[in-house]
């Protein structure tokens, strides 16, 4: 971002030390957005002068001697399903344009602002978070900064691509079936999907309440950890937010002893392309993960996650599906209509399988601290590409980019997606999967890969 530091930690330190102002940091991000976003389409709304005024308020706090917060002056992007006070929450849709503006910030946006960070705009996504490509029928496709002919992944595509392109150092996203981990992989940045219930979802437009997670993107483990520590804390307004005590991960990035790591095989490698398998092997070697293990029932878990997604998504949007079917993205409309036809018995059976699958994962975590798997089966497909060859079969792109992420979010496990450096190739990432509430282990593993030069998130060349 201009001549200023590119990382969130460095920006905040510079602002607090008076080396440059929060206003300068935000203005630099706005200049980067103006230069790169017209070609990439990461942002749907820019906050312009409002963001600069907010940055000036941070500078005024510093001048008055008040603590500006750990993210002082850090510009960040917000996936379009987060509420921003005074603005309509579009959630990637046309239908939501008729809604009134939000009365308050989403809880996580409010926490970022209290920490001194400044939102600079809302970011493109798949309509209602239902997709893995961010090829939005209403607002256009977000393009991958590493190859603009390719997708950024989704549904948090605008959030991941804006970080990969150097427009902002960090951004907020959401992950129901892989919507942080897939774009993190395709765009080559770090992404966090925490334990289900760890971060409150208050003030975000829902997709599937049983599966929705919130998280973040960054270009370094330190920045991702800093944002995660700021976001933590209970919120009684979210019924699944556990109220567990805040457990900072930043102090643990360099310590904690040996991590017992294993590589997931079977489902989690079947169909994986050469880039995904090479990245997995590099990460496993660096972490000393010599064992391979199977997580039984992963294929059925993915199918069950599909069923829950379709059924609950259809229930949420049923009134609009009846009254305004022509205003949906056609691809999403048809999937939601199919979900409305699912028998209730299918949903019940999916929930039963979920409990069984959780037990199988718990058995693995009795032996290992960390499980490794690809975050996506392939590098980014081309925009408009309907199918891809995965595992020797021609399959639809949009539903199949989440092959390896859906079984993991189905049971709410914490994951850091770590981009693995493969010279001369498009980005890919590895899922660093920990037991529930052990985000610290996933972060320690990501930091170890970063120190080893295996996990690297580079700003994509313009």
Automatic annotation (TrEMBL):
Record keywords: Methyltransferase included?
A: no
Instruction: Give the top-rank taxon of the lineage listed in the UniProt record for this protein.
Output: Bacteria
Domain Amidase stretches: 25-440
Mind telling me which InterPro entries this protein's record contains? Amidase, Amidase_dom, AS_sf, Carboxybiuret_hydro_AtzE
Keyword match Lipid biosynthesis? no
Among the Pfam families in the record, one is Amidase
PANTHER family, alphabetically? GLUTAMYL-TRNA(GLN) AMIDOTRANSFERASE, TRANSAMIDASE
Q: Which UniProt keywords apply?
A: Transferase
Q: Which organism is it from?
A: Methylocapsa palsarum
Q: What is this protein called?
A: Amidase/aspartyl-tRNA(Asn)/glutamyl-tRNA(Gln) amidotransferase subunit A
Annotated GO molecular function terms are: transferase activity
């Amino acid at each position: 971002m201009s001549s200023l530091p590119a990382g969130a930690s460095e920006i905040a330190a510079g602002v607090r030390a008076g080396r440059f102002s929060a206003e300068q940091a935000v203005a630099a991000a706005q200049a980067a957005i103006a230069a790169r976003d017209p070609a990439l389409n990461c942002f749907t709304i820019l906050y312009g002068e409002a963001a600069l005024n907010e940055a000036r308020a941070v500078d005024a706090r510093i001048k008055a001697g008040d603590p500006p917060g750990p993210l002082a002056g850090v510009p960040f992007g917000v996936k379009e399903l987060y509420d921003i006070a005074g603005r309509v929450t579009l959630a990637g849709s046309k239908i939501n344009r008729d809604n009134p503006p939000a009365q308050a910030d989403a809880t996580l946006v409010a926490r970022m602002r209290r920490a001194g960070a400044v939102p600079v705009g809302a970011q493109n996504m798949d309509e209602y978070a239902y997709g893995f490509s961010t090829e939005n029928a209403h607002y256009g496709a977000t393009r991958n900064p590493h190859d603009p002919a390719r997708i950024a992944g989704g549904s948090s595509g605008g959030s991941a691509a804006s970080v990969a392109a150097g427009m902002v150092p960090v951004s907020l996203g959401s992950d129901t079936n892989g919507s942080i981990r897939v774009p993190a992989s395709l765009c080559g940045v770090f992404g966090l999907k925490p334990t289900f219930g760890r971060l409150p979802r208050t003030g975000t437009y829902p997709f599937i309440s049983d599966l929705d997670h919130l998280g973040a993107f960054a270009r370094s483990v330190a920045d991702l950890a800093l944002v995660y520590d700021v976001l933590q804390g209970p919120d009684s307004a979210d019924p699944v937010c556990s109220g567990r005590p805040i457990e900072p991960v930043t102090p643990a990035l360099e310590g904690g002893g040996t991590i017992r790591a294993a590589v997931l095989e079977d489902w989690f490698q079947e169909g994986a392309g050469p880039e995904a398998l090479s990245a997995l092997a590099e990460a496993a070697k660096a972490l000393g993960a010599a064992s391979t293990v199977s997580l039984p029932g992963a294929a059925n878990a993915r199918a069950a996650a599909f069923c829950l997604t379709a059924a609950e998504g259809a229930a949420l949007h049923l009134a609009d599906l009846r009254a305004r079917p022509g205003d949906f993205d056609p691809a999403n409309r048809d999937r939601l209509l199919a979900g409305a036809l699912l028998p209730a018995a299918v949903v019940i059976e999916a929930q039963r399988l979920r409990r069984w699958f959780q037990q199988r994962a718990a058995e693995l975590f009795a032996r290992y601290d960390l499980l490794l798997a690809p975050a996506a089966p392939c590098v980014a497909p081309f925009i408009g590409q309907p199918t891809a060859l995965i595992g020797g079969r021609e399959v639809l792109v949009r539903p199949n980019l989440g092959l390896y992420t859906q079984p993991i979010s189905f049971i709410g496990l914490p994951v850091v997606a770590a981009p693995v450096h493969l010279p001369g190739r498009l980005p890919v990432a590895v899922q660093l999967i920990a037991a529930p509430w052990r985000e610290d282990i996933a972060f320690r593993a990501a930091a170890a890969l970063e120190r080893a030069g295996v996990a690297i998130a580079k700003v994509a060349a313009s």
